[in-house]
C-alpha cells in the first residue's frame, strides 16, 4: 500500500506536548495546601539558619516531583535578593540505586566535574561517605539541600538517610562550612513505616502528604491543559470530566488522567473524526490502563524486580502459591546470579507486601489450627503474567536471567 504523506497538519491537537509525561507545567493546580506547607518548611533556609529535613509521600502522579521543581525554581529566584545565603539544591533520582552506598557514590559525582567522576562501585562504604563529606565541606555554598527522589528504591538499607540529616550534628560537615538538609520523596506509603526509628527522627522533621486527586480536581486540571493542547472546539465539553471521573476511580493520578485524555485525542486523530467524544475516552481507557500497569512494573526498584522474578520462577515450576521463605530462597539464587546485593528476608517480605499493595501479587493467610501456626501465601494477581515476564526480560541486569528471551 502507498504510504500517507507526512505533514504537520493536525485537526485535533494544537500542542500535544502539554499532555505528555515529560511535560513540566509552570504551575501546579489543586495543590495549594501542600505547596504552602513545603514553602513553610523551607523558611529557615531563606532566613539563613539550619534547614529542616523534609519527607514527601504520595503515589505517582500526584505532584510531588513537579511541586519540588517549582519550589526550587521559586527559591532560586528569591534567594538572589539576599546576600547572606547561597543555597545549592542537588537533585538525585534514586530509581536505579538499590542501596545507600550507590546513593552516596552518585552524590559524590554530583559535586565533581565530568573529568573527575568516581566509579560507583568498589570502594569501602566508609570511604564513600568520607568522600561525600569532603565535597560538602569544600563547597562554597551556605546551604546544600539534597533532594532524593524515589528514595524508597533503597529499601531497608537506609544508612544514607541517617548519615546526611545528622552530618552537621556529628561534625562530619561542620555547620560553619555549610548547612546540609535532605528532602526525601517516596511513592511508597509503607517505606516510612519500615524505616528505623533513628532515621524517622532525622528525616521526617516535616512530613508532607500529597493525597490522590479527586474527580473534580482532575477535571479542572484537564480543562486547564486542554486549553493549550487541543484545537478550538474539537473537544466535547464532557470529555475532561469523564476522564477525571475514570482516573479518580482508578488511582487519583493526574498522570493517568492526562494519558487518558491524550489517548482519546489520539484515537480521534487516527480515525479522522472531527471531535473527541466520550466514546473515544471509553475506548482509550483499557489501552491506558494496560500501559499504566506496564509503566508501574518498569518503574519498580531493582530489588522488587528481583522479588517478582523469584515469584515468576516459582510459577514456572508450578510452586505457587508460596510462602515468603520459599520466595526468598528463589530471590537469593537470582540475586547472586546477577551479582546484586542480597537483601535480608525481612526486606524481601516488605517488598512482597508492597507488590501486593500495588496489585501485582495476592496474599492469603493459611491457618493450620491450634498449634499448627499460620503463614502467608503469595501468588500473582490478575495481572497478565506474560507482561511481567516481558518487562523483567527487558530490564537491566534482570535480563541476564532470561538467556533464551
From TrEMBL:
SUPFAM superfamilies hit by this protein: P-loop containing nucleoside triphosphate hydrolases, Winged helix' DNA-binding domain
Pfam family, one: Cdc6_lid
Protein name according to UniProt: ORC1-type DNA replication protein
Annotated Cdc6 C-terminal domain residues: 308-392
InterPro entries: AAA+_ATPase, AAA_22, Cdc6_C, Cdc6_lid, ORC1/CDC6, Orc1/Cdc6_arc, P-loop_NTPase, WH-like_DNA-bd_sf
Any one Gene Ontology molecular-function term assigned to this protein's record: ATP binding
Swiss-Prot/TrEMBL GO biological process terms: DNA replication
Family, similarity comment: Belongs to the CDC6/cdc18 family.
Stated role: Involved in regulation of DNA replication.
Source species, domain of life: Archaea
Alphabetical UniProt keywords: ATP-binding, DNA replication, Nucleotide-binding
Domain AAA+ ATPase positions: 50-209
Residues that bind ATP: 62-66, 213, 225
Amino acid at each position: 500500500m502507498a504510504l500517507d504523506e507526512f505533514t504537520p497538519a493536525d485537526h485535533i491537537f494544537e500542542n500535544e506536548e502539554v499532555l505528555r509525561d515529560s511535560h513540566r507545567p509552570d504551575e501546579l493546580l489543586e495543590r495549594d495546601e501542600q505547596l504552602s506547607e513545603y514553602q513553610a518548611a523551607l523558611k529557615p533556609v531563606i532566613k539563613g539558619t539550619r534547614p529542616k529535613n523534609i519527607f514527601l509521600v504520595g503515589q505517582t502522579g500526584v505532584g510531588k516531583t513537579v511541586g519540588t521543581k517549582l519550589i526550587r525554581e521559586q527559591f532560586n529566584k528569591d534567594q538572589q535578593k539576599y546576600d547572606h545565603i547561597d543555597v545549592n539544591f542537588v537533585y538525585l533520582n534514586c530509581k536505579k540505586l538499590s542501596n545507600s552506598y550507590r546513593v552516596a557514590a552518585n552524590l559524590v559525582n554530583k559535586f565533581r566535574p565530568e573529568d573527575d567522576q568516581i566509579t560507583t562501585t568498589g570502594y569501602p562504604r566508609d570511604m564513600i561517605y568520607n568522600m561525600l563529606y569532603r565535597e560538602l565541606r569544600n563547597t562554597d555554598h551556605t546551604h546544600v539541600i539534597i533532594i532524593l527522589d524515589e528514595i524508597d528504591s533503597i529499601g531497608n538499607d537506609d544508612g544514607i538517610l541517617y548519615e546526611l540529616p545528622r552530618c552537621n550534628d556529628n561534625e562530619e560537615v561542620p555547620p560553619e562550612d555549610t548547612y546540609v538538609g535532605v528532602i526525601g520523596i517516596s511513592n511508597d506509603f509503607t517505606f516510612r513505616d519500615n524505616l528505623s526509628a533513628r532515621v524517622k527522627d532525622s528525616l521526617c522533621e516535616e512530613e508532607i502528604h500529597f493525597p490522590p486527586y479527586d474527580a473534580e480536581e482532575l477535571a479542572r486540571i484537564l480543562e486547564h491543559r486542554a486549553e493549550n493542547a487541543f484545537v478550538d472546539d474539537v473537544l466535547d465539553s464532557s470529555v475532561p470530566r469523564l476522564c477525571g471521573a475514570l482516573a479518580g476511580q482508578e488511582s487519583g493520578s493526574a498522570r493517568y488522567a492526562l494519558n487518558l485524555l491524550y489517548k482519546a485525542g489520539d484515537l480521534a486523530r487516527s480515525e479522522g473524526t472531527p471531535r473527541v467524544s466520550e466514546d473515544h475516552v471509553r475506548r482509550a481507557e483499557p489501552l491506558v490502563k494496560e500501559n499504566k500497569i506496564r509503566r508501574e512494573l518498569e518503574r519498580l526498584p531493582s530489588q522488587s524486580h528481583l522479588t517478582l522474578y523469584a515469584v515468576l520462577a516459582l510459577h514456572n515450576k508450578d510452586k505457587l502459591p508460596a510462602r515468603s521463605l520459599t520466595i526468598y530462597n528463589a530471590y537469593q539464587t537470582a540475586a547472586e546470579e546477577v551479582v546484586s546485593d542480597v537483601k535480608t528476608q525481612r526486606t524481601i517480605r516488605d517488598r512482597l507486601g508492597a507488590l501486593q499493595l500495588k496489585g501485582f501479587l495476592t496474599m492469603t493467610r493459611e491457618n493450620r489450627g491450634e498449634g499448627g501456626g499460620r503463614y502467608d501465601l503469595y501468588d500473582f494477581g490478575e495481572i497478565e503474567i506474560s507482561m511481567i515476564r516481558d518487562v523483567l526480560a527487558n530490564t537491566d541486569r534482570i535480563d541476564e536471567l532470561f538467556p533464551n528471551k
